[in-house]
Design a protein that fits this description.
Pfam families: UDG. Its EC number is 3.2.2.27. Excises uracil residues from the DNA which can arise as a result of misincorporation of dUMP residues by DNA polymerase or due to deamination of cytosine. One of its GO terms (molecular function) is uracil DNA N-glycosylase activity. With about 220 residues, the chain is of the alpha/beta class. It contains 9 helices and 6 strands. It has a 4-stranded parallel beta sheet with strand order 3-2-5-6. The chain has a two-stranded antiparallel ribbon with strand order 1-4. Strand 5, helix 7 and strand 6 form a beta-alpha-beta unit. The longest helix has 16 residues. The termini are far apart.
Length: about 220
């Protein structure tokens, strides 16, 4: 199957594209996009990979599902298109960055600037039906993104994985912590953040300290 995805990822994931689950998944996604409004736009489903080639990944941020409101999702987890109001989780991410590293809250919630620096912004499920959170879960995307995490864990070293919330922590269970760094906290959603599980985790300064200690350029958050 010819999947339109960045070349280095295509090489790494080629075996997945020929598996039965992936063929079924792509057929499901095609049918959904034909018969319903779905997000992100078809050309942006693999945006996380297109922005951050396999060998350039320094940080992995795991999300769960794309935003399901009009014009929000752009294929990068937690990110929205320029000019779109910040969803609550993204507001809390920016508030933590502000307090952690004294960085002003940006005007745009488009996180492609992070992706360009080596932050793989990976949702566990890459598509969703409009206004129906979780509607494309358990159709095969999770198996595909598990394979992505396994490839990075196996073939790379020194990646910082940011696991926010119980779902991300479970998904990151197979990361080889003997050669990668894992930072865990609650999810930035209001439900978790307002109960004290998100703010003051200092993941942004901690990530940069780890990268700097490995001789890598820190992320300009």
């Amino acid at each position: 199957m010819d999947v339109k995805i960045e070349a280095s990822w295509k090489d790494e994931l080629q075996s997945e594209f020929h598996k039965e689950y992936f063929t079924n998944l792509i057929q499901f996604v095609k049918n959904e996009y034909i018969s319903h409004r779905c997000y992100p736009p078809g050309s942006e489903i693999f945006s996380a990979f297109d922005h951050t080639p396999f060998d350039k990944v320094k940080v992995v941020l795991l999300g769960q599902d794309p935003y399901h409101g009009p014009g929000q999702a752009n294929g990068l987890c937690f990110s929205v298109k320029d000019g779109v109001p910040f969803p609550p989780s993204l507001q809390n991410i920016f508030r933590e960055i502000e307090s952690d590293i004294n960085r002003d809250i940006p005007k745009s919630g488009n996180l492609d600037r992070w992706a360009a620096q080596g932050v793989l912004l990976l949702n566990a499920t890459l598509t969703v039906r409009a206004h129906q959170a979780g509607s494309h879960q358990r159709k095969g995307w999770e198996q595909f993104t598990d394979a992505v995490i396994s490839k990075l864990s196996e073939k790379r070293a020194g990646i910082v994985f940011l696991l926010w919330g119980g779902y991300a922590k479970k998904k990151g269970a197979k990361i080889d912590t003997s050669k990668h760094h894992v930072l865990e906290s609650g999810h930035p959603s209001p439900l978790s953040a307002n109960r004290g599980y998100w703010f003051n985790n200092k993941h942004f300064s901690k990530t940069n300290e780890l990268l700097t200690a490995m001789g890598k350029a820190p992320i300009d958050w």
